[in-house]
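Figure 3 (text version): C-alpha cells given as input.
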C-alpha cells in the first residue's frame, strides 16, 4: 500500500509540478542562444544600429539643407499669417469686452445721475418750501407792521 501511495505521489508530482521541466527548457534556450550562436544576433543588431546612426548623420543634414530653403520660408509665412489672425481676433475680443465694460459703466453712471437728480429735486422742493414759509412769515410780519403803523399814524 505504501508503494502504491508513493507511485501515485510521483505520478501526481510529474503531472502537476512543471517547474523542473520549465527550468530545463530555460537552460536549453539560454545555452542554445548564447553558446551555439555565439552572440551572433547581438553583434548583428549592434552593427545595424551603427549603420543607422551613420546614415542619419550623413543623410539628415543634406536633406534638411535642401528642405529648409523652401519649406521653412513657407512655414514661417504661414506662422506669421496665423499669428496676425490671432492678434486680430484678440483685438476684436478686447474691443468687444471694452465695449461691454463701457456700456456697463455708462448704465452705472446713468443710474447715479438719476439718483443725483432725484436728490437735487428733493432739496429744491425743500428749499422752495422753506422759501415760501419765509415769504409767508415776512408777508404777515410786514402786513402786521403796516397795520400797526396805520393804527398809530394820523395820516
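Below: residues designed for each position.
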Amino acid at each position: 500500500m505504501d508503494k502504491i501511495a508513493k507511485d501515485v505521489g510521483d505520478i501526481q508530482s510529474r503531472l502537476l509540478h512543471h517547474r523542473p521541466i520549465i527550468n530545463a527548457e530555460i537552460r536549453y534556450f539560454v545555452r542554445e542562444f548564447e553558446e551555439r550562436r555565439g552572440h551572433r544576433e547581438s553583434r548583428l543588431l549592434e552593427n545595424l544600429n551603427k549603420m543607422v546612426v551613420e546614415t542619419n548623420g550623413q543623410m539628415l543634414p543634406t536633406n534638411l539643407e535642401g528642405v529648409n530653403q523652401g519649406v521653412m520660408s513657407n512655414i514661417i509665412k504661414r506662422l506669421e499669417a496665423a499669428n496676425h489672425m490671432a492678434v486680430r481676433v484678440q483685438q476684436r475680443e478686447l474691443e468687444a469686452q471694452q465695449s461691454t465694460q463701457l456700456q456697463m459703466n455708462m448704465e452705472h453712471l446713468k443710474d447715479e445721475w438719476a439718483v443725483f437728480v432725484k436728490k437735487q429735486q428733493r432739496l429744491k422742493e425743500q428749499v422752495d418750501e422753506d422759501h415760501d414759509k419765509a415769504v409767508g412769515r415776512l408777508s404777515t410780519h410786514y402786513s402786521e407792521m403796516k397795520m400797526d403803523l396805520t393804527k398809530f399814524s394820523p395820516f
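The longest helix spans residues 40-152.
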